[in-house]
Amino acid sequence: MKSTYFLIWILLPLTLIHTYLISQPYLIVAPRANQFISATGDMLCNAAGPIEARITAVVQTSISSKEVSITFEVRRTDGNPFTRGGSIAIDSRQISACPGSVPPPTTGRIGFSTIPIGARTISCIAKCIIKPCGPNGNDLLCDHCAGQDALFKAYVYFIPAELNSPKAYAGPFLIRNTSTLSAFPQPNLAFSPLGDTTSLMAVSCQEWQIESPVNWIKFNGSRSLSGQGNHSTIPGAGERIPIQINPNITKLNRSAILRLSNGISTQNITIQQDKSKFNCTAASSIPSGINNYTLSSGKNNANAYAAIDPTTAAQLDRIIPGLESQKLNGNEKIFKYNHRGGDFNLTLSNSSETIVALVLKTCDQSSVVTGRIGNGIINNKLITGTYYIVIDAKTDAPNRFSLKVSSN
């Protein structure tokens, strides 16, 4: 009984190690994992010879090159040691092993080992690139494979040192790359011009990276993000991809394609965003004197703005830090003012620090010439023309304020 327990404790770790070495994303289709086979019926002649082989490990050795290392264990079918010298060759092609045929060529082999006389088992490692299933469910060929096989196929050949001696073979061995790469819940996303934040889940059997080709789409403030891969194909078990979409302050719809890749597969994710709804058709004139208003009667068509030129942007950044990313999510009211030239004076009072006053040269979110946050005075020399004054707020509160505008 003690010897039986001892045997179990010895075999269990070996089984766990073997399962680990042949793990996702590579699946041995034939034979079953850890099973020895000799030649099968699809070989080219009946002289199967005295060898059998099995796969003991399938490991991706490099993410960048996508190369896979496949370890074969080869032995005689009768369990006796090899009594003749020679070599073990692994090839992705089926080559005749019948007596009198030439041995497999030295070029095109994906694995090769010499056989020391007296050895009972030989380990031989093959190097290959096994592509994953395509989007239509069909397997793509290994880069080294010939023909139209749907799986990576390998054959093991025993080549004796004596050229006229009969060769032996085992196989075929079939391996599929089950590598998964997907983003859910939805690969194509549409957003309003106000921008938003969302997230996707990346499911991959490999390390992955997602990249944005534009500045208005970022992941945690960066245009690229990487993940380790969770080796799972279960929905909900992926790694989170946080996405920030900046507001669209232009008059054009825009779109971009995010590229999610794990070095083997690539998925494109389309992001679309509507053009700005900002308009000044309802802009009202400002009577002389101090006028009282509330933003509750306004509309939330815009929540970000930009300065008309770099110089103005530098000045505004000291007063309204991060103007383009303020996310002014309250309603805005738009006024129209005919300035006769010279000093332009605007006084904002009875407001809170959540209210922003902006002066626009045109009815465009990116034409801000001056502005401020909260109560205070704006005084600038501006040329003659019609200006638009926008009062916006960070929050959707009643946001009462008083406004006075004059020209000197």
Low-confidence stretches: 1-20, 133-150
Structure annotation, total helices:
2
Q: Over all CA atoms, what is the radius of gyration?
A: 36 Å
Sheet-strand content, in percent, reads: 35-45%
Total of domains: 3
Spatial sequence of strands, sheet with the most strands: 1-8-7-4-5
Here the CATH topology of the largest domain equals: Immunoglobulin-like
Assign an overall shape: rod-shaped
Reported CATH architecture of the largest domain: Sandwich
Number of strands: 26
Helix % is under 10%
Q: What value does the average pLDDT take? A: 79
What's the topology here?
Layout: H1 2-21, E1 26-30, E2 51-60, E3 68-76, E4 86-91, E5 109-115, E6 121-128, E7 152-160, E8 168-177, E9 181-184, E10 188-191, E11 196-204, E12 208-211, E13 217-218, E14 224-227, E15 239-245, E16 254-261, E17 266-273, E18 284-285, E19 291-294, H2 310-319, E20 333-339, E21 342-349, E22 355-360, E23 368-373, E24 376-382, E25 385-393, E26 400-407
Question: How is this structure best described in words?
Answer:
This protein is mainly beta. It has three domains: 24-177, Immunoglobulin-like (Sandwich), CATH 2.60.40; 181-273, Immunoglobulin-like; 284-407, Sandwich (Jelly Rolls), CATH 2.60.120.380. The chain has two helices and 26 strands. It has helices spanning 2-21, 310-319, and strands spanning 26-30, 51-60, 68-76, 86-91, 109-115, 121-128, 152-160, 168-177, 181-184, 188-191, 196-204, 208-211, 217-218, 224-227, 239-245, 254-261, 266-273, 284-285, 291-294, 333-339, 342-349, 355-360, 368-373, 376-382, 385-393, 400-407. A five-stranded antiparallel β-sheet has the order 1-8-7-4-5, with no helix packed on it. A hairpin with a 4-residue loop joins strand 16 and strand 17. The protein is rod-shaped. Mean pLDDT is 79; it is low at 1-20 and 133-150.
